[in-house]
Each structure stands twice: as structure tokens, then as C-alpha cells.
Amino acid sequence: MSVSIYNNSSFTDSPYGLQLRQTFATPGTFSVTIPTGINRVYAIVIGGGGAGSTQTTGGGGGGGAGGYSAGWTYVTTSVTVGTGGTGSSTAGAGANGNSSIYGMVMAGGGAGGINGTGGGAGGGAITPTGNTSAISYTGAPVANAGIVGYASGGGVSTTAGPAGVSQGGGGGVTGVTGTQIAGGGGRGLICGGGGAVGTSGNATGGAGGQGDFYNGGAGSTGNTGTSFGGGGGGAGYTSNGFPAGSPAGTATGVFNNGGQGGSGGGGGGGASTLGTAGSGGNGVVFLYY
Q: Per the domain annotation, does 137 fall within a domain?
């Protein structure tokens, strides 16, 4: 008999014997008050997702997911929540997400889509740059482009981002004629954005990565792909990614723009032909005691 952990009340994400007491989901640095007598807490810390990239011709890559770290830490009086990378309409690499930290538990942001068609890598304990990830808080090693890992590498041209706990963004497409399909974000706990397509033919942008709890946003499809082909935002730890169409995440008719990553570290979708790439989702910190 099979049992799903997602609809079985005997399973929980809360550490055994502890309760979720405080959640910090707004970017910035804030004061924290822990009751007297509690000297250690269990923290889940997620960095901001990387933004997708855009290109003058062709499609940019999706941004990588923010890092995921969890463990016991001493009590401290401040917490930092990292912002997601901000999407841009300027050709070049997407902006990296920013790190989150509480006590000695830290998580880097996801890498922005690279200057080209590659997707950004997933975040580790620190923020990577490009399509090679950083070592994770658990000590899991880095992953190169196209390689599965705790924090996976970014997808290369036209390929999906590899699977991981913090997953890399999908690869965009260099081709500017004919039917072209970009790489989506892969499966993970927190997911990267989809790559983009810019072509004179039919374009299909990559969907944002499908998370364990939330969905990635759809890429856009249409003829004359310089007006279509944006990648969807990756699923975050706390919300769905947004579809291609606007960096704010709503389909406004500018379908070569990337979708915004879901909150809790989702990577932003890539954009094509100087569209605006999707921004990464902001990080989050949970404290249990």
C-alpha cells in the first residue's frame, strides 16, 4: 500500500517536538526576540532566487533557486532575509539573489541566468555566480552546469535545469529562426526559472521548475517568437512561480518577459529579445522552538 506524505496527517515538516514560532518573509534585517531560557532554536533559512537573463537576440536563461539550509543554532537578536534578484531588460547576466541568515544557519541566493543562454545555478550556503553551484550548508559538493546536486548546476542551452534541493534555471535558446523550445526548470524543493526563446518562428519558453509543494509558472508560446517565448518563474518554498508575461508575474501581453519566481527562493524566468527577465522570489526564515 502506498502512502502520500502530502495528504497524511501523520507526516509534518515541523521538527519533532517543536512548533513554528516565528516567520520572516520580508526582505531586510530585523530584530528577533526569543523567550528567556531558550538558548538554541531550529532554523530553516532560504535565500532569494536569482533573476533570469535577457539577450539582444535569442533567449536568456532562467535564474537559479535560492539555497536551503536547516539546523540548530544559538539564539541571536537579528535575522536577515535575502531579496530575490531584480529582473532587467538589459542584455547580460541576471542579478543574483541575496543571502539569508539566522545565527549560524545561512543560505545563499540563487545565481542569475548567465550572460548567454545558460541557466543560473542553485544557491548553496553562499551565493554562486554563473552556472556552477556553491557548496551547501550540509557540506554537499558543488555541481557544474547540467549536473544534479543538492544545489544543482544551471541548465545549458535548450536543456532543463538539473534536479536538486535548490535547483538550477533552465537554458535558453540561441536559435533565431524556426521552431524553438527552451529548457524548463527541473524538479526540486525550490526551483529555478525556465529559459527563454527569441525566434522568427514558433517559440515556446521553458516552464518554471515544479516544486515538491508548489508549481512553476508556464512559459509563453506563440508565432513570431520575438514577441513570445518568455520563461516561467520557478516554484518557491512558499508559493507558486508566475507565468511568463511580466516580471511582476501577471500576463500583461508582453509575453517575451520572464515570470517572477515564487516566494521562498524561486528563480525568475528568462526573457528574449530585450524583454524584461523575471525577478527571483524573496527568501524566508522560519524559527522553531
A: yes
Of the listed ranges 211-215, 226-230, 243-247, the one predicted with least confidence: 243-247
Q: What is the pLDDT of residue 129?
A: 86
Per the structure, how many domains does the chain have? 1
| Full residue range of the structural domain in which residue 167 is found | 17-289
Whole-angstrom distance, CA of residue 222 vs CA of residue 179? 10
* Residue 171 belongs to a domain: yes
CA gap 148, 135 in Å, rounded: 13
What local confidence, expressed as pLDDT, does residue 2 receive? 44
Alpha carbon 72 to chain centroid, angstroms:
24
For residue 1, tell me if it sits in a domain: no
User: pLDDT tens-digit profile of 132-179?
Assistant: 999 999 999 999 999 999 999 999 888 999 999 999 999 999 877 889
Pairing of strands 40-46, 28-31: unpaired
- Whether 230 and 272 have beta carbons less than 8 Å apart is answered as yes
Could you tell me the three cell numbers for 45? Answer: 533559512
Number of other residues whose CB lies within 10 A of the CB of residue 4: 7
Residue type, 36: T
pTM, full prediction = 0.92
- 3-state SS string over 223-270? CCCCCCCCCCCCCCCCCCCCCCCCCCCCCCCCCCCCCCCCCCCCCCCC
Query: 68 near 125, Cβ under 8 Å?
Result: no
Tell me which amino acid residue 13 is: D
281 is a domain residue: yes
Which ranges constitute the DSSP H helices of the chain?
Answer: none
